[in-house]
From TrEMBL, chains A, B:
This is CRISPR-associated endoribonuclease Cas2. It comes from Candidatus Nitrosocaldus cavascurensis. The keyword ATP-binding does not apply. Keywords: Antiviral defense, Endonuclease, Hydrolase, Magnesium, Metal-binding, Nuclease. Mg(2+) binds at residue 8.
Length: 87, 87
């Protein structure tokens, strides 16, 4: 399934959280990652992130779409994602 | 259609861009908005934002999903969106 993650976390945890996310998804923008994961991998990612975040102050939003073809992506302005951006 | 917008723009333009986005979508996180728009309203939003952004440095990613029911949303940690968050 298609996964889009946006996060708003304490600056002290950003680097650690990004390192974890990069093992599962592609960085596309300052606080956004995207890619395709199984439900199992997403649950694994969730538990790894919960070891790092403060659930009372940090916020991670996870959008999932079962069929990646149902998602259209447009970029206004410059595209910041890396070349390994798989969408 | 369901619209998710994430943006990474110059700090001088953030307030203006947020004010425009708030007229079309709901703020859900530091640099993320979501909601439902017609293609026409999305094009209108695009032209208004292009009057403000520097397309060479600012980045706005727009994900659209034609059927809002195809999108699942999970929040890990705290939910930062306002109560007018319609998802």
């Amino acid at each position: 399934m298609k996964v889009i993650i946006v996060y708003d976390v304490n600056i002290e945890r950003i680097t650690t959280i990004r390192k974890i996310l990069k093992q599962y998804l592609s960085w596309v923008q300052n606080s956004a990652f995207e890619g395709e994961l199984t439900e199992g991998r997403l649950e694994e990612l969730k538990s790894r992130l919960y070891e790092v975040i403060d659930p009372n102050t940090d916020s991670i939003i996870v959008y999932t779409i079962s069929n990646p073809r149902w998602v259209d992506k447009r970029v206004w302005g410059v595209e910041k994602g890396g070349t390994d951006n798989i969408l």
